[in-house]
């Protein structure tokens, strides 16, 4: 019984590497800022509406970007990153769980949302016919 080679086919690798060279991942970071107007007691669940935050351009927002599979968020209170289990971000509000302590008036609260998108250097080269033609050269 003849044994099949365990090495991948060279042509497949060449075509695949041509495809990969044209794809890149582009991160996009957005930040939202809020300054506590009064002391916030964290002995109970607290909600801060999205409209109280401003974006990087200093403009008010109505909602936070949807948090999907290719996004993640961080919450900073007074410059300290918080544990993921300590808060939830919904479209129109930040919810901080009852973790104890107090956020004092004037303390900055920052939400950072990082999104990853796929980009293509040359879309025409993603066409399988173009890949095959380049592979023949």
Please tag this protein with its features.
alpha+beta, three-stranded antiparallel beta sheet, elongated
Describe the structure.
The chain is α+β, with helices and mostly antiparallel strands and 137 residues long. The protein has a domain at 26-120. It contains two helices and ten strands, in the order αββββββββββα. It has helices at 10-21, 128-136, and strands spanning 23-35, 40-41, 46-49, 54-55, 71-77, 80-81, 87-90, 93-96, 102-103, 108-120. The strands form three sheets. It has a five-stranded antiparallel beta sheet. It has a three-stranded antiparallel beta sheet with strand order 3-8-7, with no helix packed on it. Strand 5 and strand 6 form a beta hairpin. The longest helix has 12 residues, at 10-21. The protein is elongated. The two termini are 36 Å apart.
Summarize the structure.
This protein is of the alpha+beta class and 137 residues long. The protein has 2 helices and 10 strands. The radius of gyration is 24 Å and the shape is elongated.
Q: How many distinct beta strands?
A: 10
Distance between the termini: 36 Å
Percent helix range: 10-25%
Largest sheet features: 5 strands, antiparallel
Shape: elongated
Strand-and-helix sequence, N→C? Answer: HEEEEEEEEEEH
> Could you tell me the strand content as a percent range?
35-45%
